[in-house]
Amino acid sequence: MDFKCAVIKGDGIGPDIVDQAIKLLDIVGEKYGHSFSYEEVLAGGVAIDATGHPLPQETIDVCKKSDAVILGAVGGPQWDHLPGNLRPEVALLGLRSALGLYANLRPAVMYKELQAACPIKDEIIGQGLDIMVVRELTGGIYFGERGQGTGENGAYSYDTMMYSEKEVERIARNAFDIAMKRGKKLTSVDKANVLENSRLWRKVVLEVAKDYPEVELNHLYVDNAAMQLVINPKQFDTIVTGNMFGDILSDEASMITGSIGMLPSASLGEGKIGMYEPIHGSAPDIAGQDKANPIATVLSMAMMLRYSFDLEEEAKAIEKAVENVLAAGYRTGDIMSPGGKLVGTKEMGRLLCEQI
Ligand code: NAD
Predict the structure, then answer these.
(1) CATH of range 119-256; options 3.40.718.10, 2.60.40.420, 3.40.50.1000, 3.40.50.720
(2) Which CATH superfamily is domain 1-111+263-356 in?
C-alpha cells in the first residue's frame, strides 16, 4: 500500500533526525511491502527565511492532502527577535488548527537500559514505565475568552476555561480507543471538586465509558495526579485530560523517563491524518553536528504507522529495533552512560535500520 507523507524537516537538528527516520521507514516499507512517498515542505525558521512566513499556505495545502505529517522541530535564536505572530512556533499551532488535530498523544516509556537517567528511585520505578498521556489540544483555557482591563484594584486580566460536551466526548472516545489497544485502564484527570468545567468533563467521560465496559476507568484531581505520577507512576496506563492539565502532566510524565531525545508524540484529529514529531525542540546547540538522538523521531514514526496507517506489526518492529539497539549498548551523547558505545545520529540511524 502507498502512504503519502508530508515532511517538514524544520530547523536546527530537524533535518538530521528526520533524514534518519525516513531511511528507517523505507526499510520498513521494503520489508513489509508498503511504499511511503514524501513531499517536503517548509515551516518554521527556514520558511521565514524563504517566504517571510513561518507557515506558508503551500505547506498547509500539501499537509491536508497527505495521509500523515512528519515534523522535525522548529525554532532557533536567529528568529527570536521576531514578533509573536511571525515566530517559527506559530507554524505548530497553525498546522494543528488547519488539520483539526485535537488529540495529543505523548507516551512516556522508560527503557530498563536507560534507568540510570530516571530521577525516581529504583524501588518505585521497578523494571520500567509505560504511560500514555492523551491531552486535549484545541480547547480549554488556552483557547477560551480572555481579556484585561483596569478596575478599582488596578489592572486585571482573565482567561476562560471552556469545554463543550462534544469536545470532551471526542477526546474521551479517542482515549478509550487508545486504552483498549493498551492496558485497558484509563485515568481521567480533572479538578471537579472546584471547577464547573471539570464537572462537565467528568460527567461526559462517565457517559462515554458506558460504551467501553472492558476499560477500567478512574478519576483523579489534577493535584493528586501530579503527586501520584511521582510516588506511584506504575499505577497509570492511559491518562486523558484537558489542554492545560495535559500540558503540565505530559511534561512531568515524560521527564520521569529522564531523556528528552527518546520521546515521541502524535497529534490526531477526526480522520486518520496525524502529525508526528519528537517532543524536543530544534536543539540549535548541536544542529548539523551528527550528535542528535534520532530515536524520538523514529518512535514517532512507529506511532504514525500505528495510528494513521493501522500497521501495528510494523510499528512494533520499529519499537523492537530501538530496544535491541539500546540493549546492545549503543548510545547517542544525550543518553550516554559509563560503559555505553557512543555513536552519532547517522550511525544510530544505520543501527536501527539493521534491526528491521
Ligand atoms: P530543545 O529541546 O531544543 O533542547 C534542550 C536541550 O536538549 C539541549 O541541550 C539540546 O541539545 C538537547 N536535545 C534536544 N533534543 C535532542 C536530541 N534529539 N538529541 C540530543 N540532545 C537533544 O529545547 P530548547 O533549547 O529550549 O529550544 C530550542 C529551540 O527549539 C527554541 O527555538 C524553541 O522554541 C524550539 N522548540 C521547538 C519545539 C518544536 O518544534 N516542537 C519544541 C520545543 C522547543
Answers:
(1) 3.40.718.10
(2) Isopropylmalate Dehydrogenase (3.40.718.10)
DSSP type of residue 270: S
pTM greater than the 0.90 cutoff: yes
pLDDT at position 40 is 98
- From ligand 1's centre to the CA of 71, what distance in Å? 13
Query: 45 alpha carbon to ligand 1 midpoint, in Å?
Result: 14
Per domain, the residue ranges of the chain are 1-111+263-356, 119-256
Q: Is 223 a catalytic residue?
A: yes
* Residues whose beta carbon lies within 6 Å of some atom of ligand 1: 13, 73-76, 89, 92, 260-261, 277, 280-286, 292-293, 296, 334
* Alpha carbon of 282 to ligand 1 centroid (Å): 4
Residue 331: strand, helix, or coil:
strand
Alpha helices in 210-355 (DSSP H): 222-231, 243-256, 295-307, 312-327, 345-355
Give the residue ranges of the chain where pLDDT is below 70.
none
- Active-site hit among 163, 191, 291, 330: 191
Burial class of 146 by CB neighbour count within 10 A (0 to 12, 13 to 18, 19+): exposed
